[in-house]
Each structure stands twice: as structure tokens, then as C-alpha cells.
Amino acid sequence: xxxxxxxxxxxxxxxxxxxxxxxxxxxxxxxxxxxxxxxxxxxxxxxxxxxxxxxxxxxxxxxxxxxxxxxxxxxxxxxxxxxxxxxxxxxxxxxxxxxxxxxxxxxxxxxxxxxxxxxxxxxxxxxxxxxxxxxxxxxxxxxxxxxxxxxxxxxxxxxxxxxxxxxxxxxxxxxxxxxxxxxxxxxxxxxxxxxxxxxxxxxxxxxxxxxxxxxxxxxxxxxxxxxxxxxxxxxxxxxxxxxxxxxxxxxxxxxxxxxxxxxxxxxxxxxxxxxxxxxxxxxxxxxxxxxxxxxxxxxxxxxxxxxxxxxxxxxxxxxxxxxxxxxxxxxxxxxxxxxxxxxxxxxxxxxxxxxxxxxxxxxxxxxxxxxxxxxxxxxxxxxxxxxxxxxxxxxxxxxxxxxxxxxxxxxxxxxxxxxxxxxxxxxxxxxxxxxxx
Length: 437
Ligand code: HAM
Prior knowledge:
The protein is built from 16 helices and 16 strands. The two termini are 49 Å apart. By secondary structure, the protein is α+β, with helices and mostly antiparallel strands. Helices cover 42% and strands 19% of the residues. The strands form 3 sheets. Strands 1-5-6-11-10-9-7-8 form an 8-stranded mixed sheet. A 5-stranded mixed sheet has the order 13-12-14-15-16, sandwiched between helices. It has 2 domains: 318 residues, BirA Bifunctional Protein, domain 2; 91 residues, Anticodon-binding domain (Rossmann fold, 3-Layer(aba) Sandwich). α4 packs across α10, α5 packs across α6 and α6 runs antiparallel to α7. It is elongated and about 95 Å long. β12, α13 and β13 form a beta-alpha-beta unit. The site of histidyl-adenosine monophosphate (HAM) has 22 residues, from β6, β10, β11 and α12.
């Protein structure tokens, strides 16, 4: 057992693990490029105040925070949203809108450890700034789906649950709840799936009681899972113009996603309200269909955050996918490839004299962009051919004493084991031709 181990919840990436993570990141980048998003990055360490009261109580309690040597209170970032708001806010005047940005970065939360949750994880974040209409939601939910479909996952594997904090706020207002009761009720709704009736405990503690009729109405709203059910309930129970008007935005989002051919991936589900403090409108979360894993991704509209952080009034929508649950889903579905890193060429070297000649060739082939490997020490040919085969290289070059003396080199196609002797001056063109086939 080594004396020093990784901290609980932190991961190490051996080359084969990193190859898998890189594969995931590469396909996420590909999806973001296809949707016309630009990549950005930002510091890992931020002023603690950036998260205080902005991310919400849950994240605040999970911060890795400390006082630095200059006496500043700082925190490792638990999420990207406040940071990207600051970045965009600072240059909002000069950025072309809509601003479509994405990043892939590492985050830190002191969470209770469970399957698919760690204390250090990566997220793909995508956000759109400067668009207040539901067109931004369509684009982002489309990108979220593409980020998962790109790996071969289908609507049988995952889906996006779409909900709306505006609808909730208008609905609770129509039931007579004030702001304080509304926010306590939303927090109960957020916890309902996990804790059932216990989710209302905090509400009851704060306000003394919970009327059974009100609870029944909240529960029936929470269980709405289609646009038609939503329309029916609004027509029948609620007398709010705002609620009725909001239905037009819903039709736009669902209609847009349908026209993109994505409706099979999206479910109306008012049971989702999201725990983070800053969301203001549509909210959504992606889950595996079997319901075995924790959330794969989450996001929504947060129109007030840029301004709250000192920037201009700028509407915003975004989401983040985490790499941990998503990796588990890919593995369960057999969609995580085993990536084997093999050189293109393995060079077999006769002895010390031949090594010098071989080094020249190795150097120029590497400069051309080929991945070339060779044994560090003099070994018998048998061992070197074994190493060449084990390396997975497609081509072996043989610099034996006869070849070097003649100014030639042998070139072996490892797949068919055919060998050919060529002049050293033809090496680069022959290799190029081989790899262009
Ligand atoms: P979030 O729901 O806190 O949202 O996180 C998004 C995703 O990150 C989760 O669905 C999960 O996959 C992953 N995640 C979160 N915490 C952990 C953890 N401890 N271990 C492993 N994975 C985790 C946000 O972070 C928002 N800032 C997303 C957003 C972007 N909203 C607007 N723009």
C-alpha cells in the first residue's frame, strides 16, 4: 500500500483511462463545433464570494475553500456558470450576439461519495447569452442531445426532462403563495423525487403547516408529463394570464425540437425544478432511461445572474454534462471503446553502428508526423520482431548491417508479413504511400 493515496473522491487517470476521457471530450468538442459554439477557459481558483449566495446553499456547503497567503477567501470552482457570467459580462458590449460558448473543465465539490458522484469531476458546459426567446433553449437542448447521440446512445438509453420554473412560480402565485412560500415550495418540489412527503418538512417548519388541498394541487402539477396535460390543468384549475401566455413558449420549444427530429428524446416533466439558486425559466435534466443512474446533465435559463455579478442585463441559458455518470452509461451500453495506442512504425536495429543510420530515418519520419518507436538497447532480431508485433505498429523498418552497408532498408507490412527492400532515399515516399492506402 503506498504511503500517500489520492484524496477520497479524486481520480487518477492512467494512460488507458485518459485515452477514454479524451475520446469523450473529443466527441463533445465535435458536437459543440457542429452547433457553432466557441471554446473558452478560466481559472480553477476563484474568489469565494463568486459562489456565496449565487450558486445556492447546497453548492455553498460543498465548497473546497480556504484563505490564501494574501488573506483572500478563495474556492476551487464547483461549477462554471458564475465564472462564465463574469467573462461574458466584462465584454458584453463587444461580443457578437447570440454569444454561444462552451468549455470542458474540472470542478470540485465536497460531496458525499456515491456511484457517479465524486469530489473532482469534469463537465462540458455550453451556454448562450443575449437571447431571451425560447430559440436558445431549442439550440441548447439540441446540443445536449447531440453530445450523447454522438456516442451511439439512442432515445432508448437517455432522455431529457423539460420543466419550467416560470410555470411553477405563476402556478404557485395563482394558488396564493407569496415569494417566501414559493421558494420554499420549489425547494420541496426539487427534493420530492428523493424524499417523497418528507420533502415538505422544511416548508412546514418554516410556515407552521401545509394545507392538504394545496399539497394535492402541488403534487398534481408536479406529476404533469405532457403538454396536453399541462394545457388541461391550466384551463381547468388556474386563472392566470401569465400561465396561459407561457404555453406559447412551451409550444415553441417543443415544436422546434420536434422539427429537429428530437422529440423522442424530450419529456415534459414538471417534477424537475433544479436545486441551483439562479434558474429563472425553462430547466432541464438528462437521465438514463432505466433510471439507474444519477443525473447525466442539467441546465436551464438564468436571466438575472450576469447582472447580479456586476455585469449588464443579459439573458442566459446553459447546461452542463458531467463525465462520471455519462462514462458509466457508456460503459454499461458497451459504447466506451478500448483505445489502444500503437505507433505507426517500429524500427528494428542491427547494432550500435546501424543505430546512428536508423536515428536519422526515425527523426525525419517523426518530423513528418508519423509515430515511430524503437528499442533503446541492442537486442537480438527475434526479440525486436516480437516487440514490433506487440507494439501494434503497422509497419516495421529493418536496419540490419547488410542493409546499412548497401544504403538500403527493409520495410515490412506487419499485417500481411510481406517484406521489401528499398533504397534509403526512397524511404519517406514509400512510407507515405503505404499510409495513404
Ligand atoms: P449541476 O446539475 O450541478 O449543474 O451539474 C451538472 C452535471 O454535472 C450533473 O448532472 C452531473 O452529471 C455533474 N456533476 C455535478 N456534481 C457532480 C459530482 N459531485 N460528481 C460528479 N459529477 C457531478 C451545474 O453545475 C450548472 N452550473 C449547469 C449549468 C450550466 N447551468 C447553466 N449553465
